[in-house]
Design goal:
It is a single chain. With 238 residues, the chain is an alpha/beta fold. The chain has a single domain, classed as Undecaprenyl pyrophosphate synthetase (3-Layer(aba) Sandwich). 43% of the residues lie in helices and 15% in strands. It has seven helices and six strands, in the order βααβαβαβααββα. The protein has a six-stranded parallel sheet, with helices on both faces. The longest helix is centred in the first third of the chain and has 25 residues. The structure holds 3-methylbut-3-enyl trihydrogen diphosphate (2 copies) and magnesium ion. The site of one 3-methylbut-3-enyl trihydrogen diphosphate has 11 residues, from β2.
């Protein structure tokens, strides 16, 4: 069935272990991890992907030491300041999934600026998931729907799988076709729970700071061998 690859989501995991293995502080793993994002972004463009979603900070990552969190936001800020030119050149739109209100103001403003400047770009969507949690996204959507029903904007009968999506952060995006998680962990860690419903999953042992275009291409080739049945029956047996 459908082999088109429009949307790849990445759980960029293993920055800390990568650094530890080299005797470096964890935050240098995040520094290198941010640099890798540029490479993988380019790799996505080269493969004519339309959307990439990057899990940069989860609602659970607030459990980490403040120093690590501060460094991480600082590296993200540097990333967006540096890459805005590239996004404009490529016609890529920066989008955010997650609640930015808790993100330090300085970082938030840089990201808002990138969103504002790229909002009319149509070639590619760079969806950064920041202070994002799949469960909290679904609860948020449910509350927004309840508000709309209460205010008479929609009725209960209007609520269905299609209309529900209008209340998610990803409302304008196609569903995730491929999820790649680095570092050998095999779980979703609360990432895009709704959007992953029929995604293909690839787990690689490579830590995110070592992930590269070559391995991305291998993942894409692996994706092409998958038979996406969507509850139907095997290809060629219809
Ligand atoms: C992923 O790397 C980046 C974030 C969660 C922000 P980790 O920091 O989780 O690295 P490990 O899993 O501890 O090695
Ligand atoms: C998931 O990685 C979150 C991000 C990559 C931003 P974690 O390292 O936080 O996930 P767990 O704790 O191993 O599940
Ligand atoms: Mg981790």
């Amino acid at each position: 069935m459908e082999k088109e690859l429009k949307h790849i989501a990445f759980i960029m995991d293993g920055n800390g272990r990568w650094a530890k293995k080299r005797g470096l502080p964890r935050h240098l793993g995040h520094k290198r991890g941010c640099e890798v994002c540029t490479d993988i972004y380019e790799g996505c463009l080269e493969n004519h992907i339309q959307v990439m979603s990057l899990y940069a900070f989860s609602t659970e990552n607030w459990n980490r030491p403040k120093d690590e969190i501060d460094h991480l936001f600082n590296y993200l800020e540097i990333f967006f300041k540096k890459e805005i030119k590239r996004f404009m050149r490529d016609g890529s739109r920066v989008m955010v999934s997650g609640d930015l209100s808790r993100i330090p103001e300085k970082t938030r403003n840089v990201i808002y600026d990138s969103m504002e400047r790229t909002k009319d770009n149509k070639n590619f969507a760079f969806n950064i998931c920041l202070n994002y949690g799949g469960k909290s996204e679904i609860v948020r959507a449910t509350k927004l729907i309840a508000e709309d029903i209460k205010n008479g904007v929609i009725s209960i009968d209007d609520v269905n799988e299609k209309s529900f999506e209008n209340y998610l952060y990803t409302k304008d995006l196609p569903p995730v076709d491929l999820l790649i998680r680095t570092s050998g962990e095999m779980r979703t860690s609360n990432f895009l729970l709704w959007q992953l419903a029929y995604a293909e999953f690839i787990f690689t042992k490579t830590c995110w700071p070592d992930f590269n275009k070559k391995e991305l291409n291998e993942c894409i080739n692996e994706f092409k061998t998958r038979d996406r049945r969507y509850g139907g029956i095997e290809d060629g047996n219809k």
